[in-house]
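Revision sheet: structure tokens.
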Amino acid sequence: MPCKKTLVLISGKWNARVLYELVTQGSVRFGALRKSIPDISNTMLTATLRFLEEQGLVHREQFNEIPPHVEYSLSESGKALIPVFDAIGRWGETYLK
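Predicted:
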């Protein structure tokens, strides 16, 4: 059941919210992502990003510069979810008035 598996990936308290922020912000550092989701803890954001990375939806890039930093972005399969989020948004505009 592909639909059920997809719903598992984007459900949960933070998965869809983190994916949405990556859709709207593009490549982003942990701190900026944390600021855009004020209710999430550092631990939960880390766990959510790891889960989404393990599922192939998020790409983590480490920059070995001074100071070193990490940026997160959508992977190709994560980018394929953009039309899904667009459709959810259109549904919300139509039915959640």
